[in-house]
Amino acid sequence: MSFSGREDDYWSKSRIKKSTGKFNMFDDNISVDNASAFANKILSCRDYADDDFSESLESYLDHEIPSSSSFPGEESRKNEQANLISRIGTPAKPTTSTPTPAANQRGTSYRQPSSTPATPGDEVQPGHPSFHHARTSSFGHGRSKSDTGTTGGNFSVYNARPDPGDTETNRRGSQQEGSSDYSSDTTASIEDILQRSTPKVTSTAAMNKLEAEVQFLRRSLKASERERWSRPLVTDTVKRIRDGETHTGLSMYRTLEDKLEIMGKAIESYDGNVITTVVLFLRQTLSDAVFQEVLKSRPVAVNHYISYLRMKGNYPELISFLKTMKMNEEAAMVTYKQAVSNSDLAVKFDSLKQCLREFRSHCPNMSSETWLVERQLALLEWQNAVDSMDSKLAQDTRNSIYQEFPRPPSLVMSPVISSVYHSCLYHYDNQNKQTEFASPLNFREKHALTEKQFLWPALAARAKVKAWADIEDLLTSKGTMFTGKKLKSVVSFDKVAELLFKFGAPEEEIKKYLQAMNDSEKCLQLSQKLRCYHTFVETCIYLKDRRELENFARKFPSNSEPHRIAADALSASTIKWK
User: Fold this and answer.
1) pLDDT tens column, 132-152
2) Which long-range contacts (CB under 8 A, 24 or more apart) does 531-536 make?
């Protein structure tokens, strides 16, 4: 049976219509005008304690009853009833929800509501409260009984005789099914519930702010709709690009005059991002010939477009654009940079050949760069040939130098100095005509190396294999008819002496180059550093500096060789000291 059907059945069985001492509070003829009389009537009927009265006492009255009103009965009873009538909300029919434990603690006894409404025969026990508020309501006066079937938002009133058998069941049901909101409402006072149910009123300032935002959004929407199909101002478009907006309106500039106008404004803005954005827009919307013609008279735009292509790594497009702009030297250098960046030898070799052709045909003013590219190609050819030859020679055990000093994994793409070092280390005395191209002299002549470029790596290579005689030959001049051979080098002799000491040369070999130094004071310092004590003593004798020699002798024990050499020189009677 539905709720409305049970309600009609309840009212049909009710004794209110038959009883003259009871008044139907749900009658539609109750209004605000006769509310006071109706309240007095209800209070006078307080002795009738049955279900009809308890269900009818859920008030329609929302107005406050003055505290000075006088009703018959006890004073405490009067105040309690008056407050209930003035504050209680619209009643609800008893639902199937279980009463909360909070209600039981206040002393009110309940029985589990059944599927059918209670009859008027169930009377209220004297001395028990007649009302239990679960939720408040804002309903007013004059409600009929058809409006009392509301659920899930108001409160329920149960005034039933306690059922001992159902007490424990009701308590367990209350603990399991009662929600946290319902329990909190039952323990709160009527004033707290009314305060929580009062809607929050938005302040006037907040409402004004929201209205202003809505108006702004409406105006923006209308402006966007208007500008959707119309060309925006050039200054506005430039500002949007500068501010980083996504939809700048560039697509609305369709004629060449409009595009030139915005290109001019972009250049006047001195903003690289704006200029690059407009240039890319022209590149997409103009033909190649028109685009190139537009940029020829605008070098600022050309520079930004070149920088953009470099950043993106679009080198084919960059080279083509540079050639179109008659910037052949820049195009040739970009081509060379791309050629040398290849790691594959065959690709690198072919790219350098193509670059060499570009230099010769389009860059007549770059003769020095053309010569360098030629030398680089020759170096790659030499390195590739020598590397292949060494890989075969290293397999022959008779070539001990490859076992004593293992060669690097690959000579290809190494610098010129490394190639000189490699040639002087493995092919210094090469007399074979088939392998003569790998000799140091042949390499020096082919690549036009200076004496200084050739001498230092050659000295390092021969010092590593301890070929002291070869080093002396490299540093000895041929002499003339009137002058004999003497040491002469573009490399300072102190560097040569330090190099020989590094590779373990004997003192006799280092002494030659120390004595060849023109600075005697520097020779004294370097001979002590390189532990050439005989050279130090001889230099002191040459300078006739007895005090320096005495200081030198004190640094060593009396039985050491340096001390003995210094003592012999100091005791010699043939030496005239200062």
Assistant:
1) 443 444 434 444 443 444 344
2) 531/507, 532/507, 533/561, 533/562, 533/565, 533/566, 534/507, 534/565, 535/507, 535/510, 535/511
